[in-house]
Automatic annotation (TrEMBL):
PANTHER family: ACYL-COENZYME A OXIDASE-LIKE PROTEIN, ELECTRON TRANSPORT OXIDOREDUCTASE. This is Acyl-CoA oxidase. Transmembrane segments: none annotated. Its cofactor is FAD. The keyword Flavoprotein applies. InterPro entries: ACOX_C_alpha1 (IPR055060), Acyl-CoA_Oxase/DH_mid-dom (IPR006091), Acyl-CoA_Oxase/DH_mid-dom_sf (IPR046373), Acyl-CoA_oxidase (IPR012258), Acyl-CoA_oxidase_C (IPR002655), AcylCo_DH-like_C (IPR036250), AcylCoA_DH/ox_N (IPR013786), AcylCoA_DH/ox_N_sf (IPR037069). SUPFAM superfamilies: Acyl-CoA dehydrogenase C-terminal domain-like, Acyl-CoA dehydrogenase NM domain-like. The lineage of its organism: Bacteria, Bacillati, Actinomycetota, Actinomycetes, Mycobacteriales. Belongs to the acyl-CoA oxidase family. Keywords: FAD, Flavoprotein, Oxidoreductase. Residues 130-244 form the Acyl-CoA oxidase/dehydrogenase middle domain. The keyword Oxidoreductase applies. Residues 498-633 form the Acyl-CoA oxidase C-terminal domain.
Length: 639
């Protein structure tokens, strides 16, 4: 008979539960047992060997269209890479670079000739690639990249060049050692006959960088980033191009092309919109990184909670036993809210993957839906990766000295996930992107604007901030309507009350941000100063929005649970998530008179109360994560 933990697992696993099950089984193979070595060569060789095993068992095909040699199951592709994080984050990142980023650029920015030439070999790992976007001078501001790709009509080639020291490609996964080819982002410079050559903005080119012997090709100089804060199995490196020539056909030309005579053409006229359309198609990497961070947090919480359920410290009066660490209220307060948040984010991530799959497998894409997806992916990437960083550190401390030993996995999880807050988009920059979508009510013109420009746009056009409901629309509305019928029920454990508090905070922050923007716009001469004077407020509004989206996803997740006992448990966990968010932002709620002093105290009591109710179910809750036993076999747990 299915246990409560089984029901939790089924509910959390969501639409791609079969994919998750398959990866869980595969991870029991000896080759995927968690391992750690500071020896970069050994770690890199292991990651590559593991990838070969995955390639043989058909892992990569899901991410590519059937017509190109794949199976076209986008959701399955993202889910399986996310699950790899439970075994080893170097493997997850290296697989993500090869199939998600390099493969994703070819698949989404290329056309038939690129698909025919590269997709099958890159799925099978006969072609190892890297994704060379970031430069030493520019990471977050991709439009300002300096690498040039100048078209030479005489030879019908592009000349790829790094004109300045700051145009060196930097941190590129695979560039130090294994990649033979790079998807290089560069300013495309060309001229139609009789015209002067001009830059057409950033485009992507396929550029061979190493020969079969592993040596750099002429004009290419690669170097190794060496030891990093984590991810020893990923060979991050740098690339400098000195007038490297590639055929005209190496431009990934789905959104723009250059004719033999140098004439530039694109179906998207506006250069900004073109750029954002191109990078928008690469969203999958961001979704995967957020999901993998969530998976790593679940591994850490599974380890730390199991440890807390066996570790004893200090005598209990009138008892022969020492106290189980998990029985201390403070320990419950440290771990259980993080478990609750992991559930919340997992449900939100599942919704995101479903939307990604639906949009990327649809025949036609509605631009507004695409932009909403991009904003949601940005927000959840930030939320998941920040959560992982905080949760894993707490788990490390919760395991005391044992938590600091490499054999117990937590330090590697911490080191490896640290950079997840930075790559695939720095979290603060991504949060700003969420705000942009919210404040401008998804206006199409905003897509390609710089932060200063869109702030000006928002200041002049925002009147009513549009509140967009999540997929849980109906369920949430029913909860809110029921609450309105019974208004005196303002209990903090009432879901309608919680939803209202989240919504009110978001609406207030958004509308006041819009008003401040308008005022700043009138007051300041310098548009940058106007923008900068409200930046913190705008980011808080975006964070409040993400919190609301995550809470609504939790509510929908509970609704999808088919077992009553498991659903009740999820209900208590959802209370804990909601009350913890309110408690963490208590000062704001009180400052803005959304919470009286008495109710603020009640929030703290509510968190304690839910910690107590959930304590007996701690093991069940982490069993619901279904982290494979083989990846939990750490020494301190007797593994
Ligand atoms: C291990 C690793 C692997 C990587 N792999 C790849 C890869 O395979 N391919 C690739 O192309 N890139 C890769 N990167 C690069 C990564 O994507 C960039 O580091 C990232 O985009 C951030 O850019 P940056 O380092 O230039 O930081 P910056 O953009 O310089 O950011 C520095 C700080 O400034 C803040 N900041 C920036 N802009 C604003 C703003 N408008 N408002 C407020 N604050 C701001 C940020 O929040 C951040 O804290 C990798 C990086 C690492 C570390």
């Amino acid at each position: 008979m299915a246990t409560t933990a089984d029901h939790l697992r089924t509910t959390l696993d969501g639409q791609w539960r079969e994919v998750r099950e398959k990866v869980r089984v595969d991870l029991t193979r000896e080759e995927f047992a968690p391992h750690f070595t500071p020896d970069l060569q050994a770690a890199r060789a292991t990651a590559l060997e593991q990838m070969r095993i995955l390639a043989e068992s058909g892992y990569a095909a899901n991410g590519f269209a059937a017509a190109h040699g794949g199976t076209g199951d986008v959701g399955a592709a993202v889910t399986s890479i996310e699950m790899l994080a439970m075994s080893d984050l170097s493997l997850m990142v290296k697989a993500g670079v090869q199939w998600g980023l390099f493969g994703g650029a070819i698949e989404n920015l290329g056309t038939a000739r690129h698909h025919a030439a590269y997709v099958k070999p890159l799925i099978d790992l006969d072609l190892l690639g890297c994704f060379a976007m970031t430069e030493t001078g520019h990471g977050s501001d991709v439009q300002a990249l300096e690498t040039t790709a100048t078209y030479d009509p005489a030879t019908q080639e592009f000349v790829i060049d790094s004109p300045t020291p700051s145009s060196r490609k930097d941190y590129i996964g695979g560039a130090a050692q294994h990649a033979r080819m790079a998807a290089v982002f560069a300013q495309l410079i060309t001229a139609a006959p009789g015209e002067e050559a001009t830059s057409r903005g950033v485009h992507c080119f396929v550029v061979p960088i190493r020969g079969e012997d592993g040596a750099d090709l002429p004009g290419v100089t690669t170097s190794d980033c060496g030891h990093k804060g984590g991810l020893p199995g990923v060979d991050n490196g740098r690339i400098v191009f000195d007038q490297v020539r590639v055929p005209r056909e190496n431009l990934l030309n789905k959104y723009a092309d250059v004719a033999e005579d140098g004439t530039y053409s694109s179906p998207i006229e506006n250069p900004n919109r073109r750029f954002f359309t191109m990078v928008g198609t690469l969203i999958r990497g961001r979704v995967t990184v957020g999901g993998a961070a969530g998976a790593a947090a679940r591994v850490a919480l599974s380890i730390a909670t199991r440890y807390a359920l066996q570790r004893r410290q200090f005598d209990k009066p009138k008892s022969d036993d020492e106290v189980l660490v998990m029985d201390y209220l403070v320990h419950q307060r440290r771990l259980l809210p993080l478990i609750a948040k992991s559930y919340a984010l997992h449900f939100a991530q599942n919704q995101l993957v479903t939307r990604l799959h639906d949009i990327q497998t649809a025949d036609e894409v509605d631009p507004q839906e695409q932009r909403e997806l991009e904003a949601r992916a940005a927000g959840l990437k930030a939320a998941n990766t920040w959560h992982a960083t905080r949760a894993i550190q707490e788990c490390r401390e919760a395991c005391g000295g044992a938590g600091y030993l490499t054999e117990n996995r937590l330090v590697a999880l911490k080191a490896d996930t640290d950079v997840f807050t930075t790559f695939e988009g720095d979290n603060h920059v991504l949060t700003q992107l969420v705000a942009k979508e919210l404040l401008t009510s998804y206006a199409d013109e905003v897509r390609g604007m710089s932060p200063v420009d869109w702030m000006r746009f928002a200041a002049t056009t925002v009147s009513d901030v549009v509140k967009k409901r999540t997929a849980a629309q109906q369920i949430i509305q029913t909860i809110l309507d029921t609450r309105q019928d019974n208004e005196e029920d303002g209990s903090l454990f009432n879901r309608g009350t919680q939803l209202n508090m989240f919504e009110d905070r978001e609406e207030y922050l958004l509308s006041t941000a819009a008003r401040r923007l308008q005022a700043a716009q009138k007051r300041e001469d310098d548009p940058f100063d106007a923008f900068n004077s409200v930046q913190d407020h705008v980011l808080r509004a975006a964070e409040a929005h993400i919190d609301r989206v995550v809470l609504e996803a939790f509510v929908a997740g509970i609704d999808s649970c088919e077992d009553e006992t498991a659903a009740d448990l999820l209900g208590d966990l959802c209370d804990l998530y909601a009350l913890t968010v309110i408690e963490d932002d208590k000062a704001w709620f009180m400052e803005h008179r959304h919470l009286s002093v008495e109710r603020a105290k009640a929030v703290t009591r509510g968190v304690n109360e839910r910690c107590r109710t959930l304590r007996p179910h701690a093991l069940t809750l982490i069993e619901g994560f279904a982290v494979p036993e083989s990846t939990l076999g750490v020494a301190m747990l007797g593994g």
